[in-house]
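Onboarding guide, step 5: your first structure request.
Type a short instruction followed by the sequence, for example:

Predict the 3D structure of this protein.
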Amino acid sequence: MSYVTECIGIAASYYNMAFAAIAFVTFLKLLRSKTKHYLLPWKLIFIAFCIYIVEEALTILEGLAVIPHYPLMYPILEMVIILTFIYAVLKQKEKVAR
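The system replies with structure tokens like these:
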């Protein structure tokens, strides 16, 4: 692997966390807004987003050798994120059908 690829791989987690912080603030503003429309799907997406933040934090800690590597950790987190998105879409579809 070239040095550039290795450096980008290391720095990508930090950039993801920076962009996630911006999105986190945006989610908080959305969920705290005065106009309360049907927000359940957005709350579910926010939960999935928080799980993503935990996953990225674990990636950074693993890269710094603070925590050991657990092979099943990331697939389980990804599955929870995907299932939460699917549930949010189904709840929105149910709301639109009414």
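Each response can be followed by summary notes, for example: The chain has one domain: 3-97.
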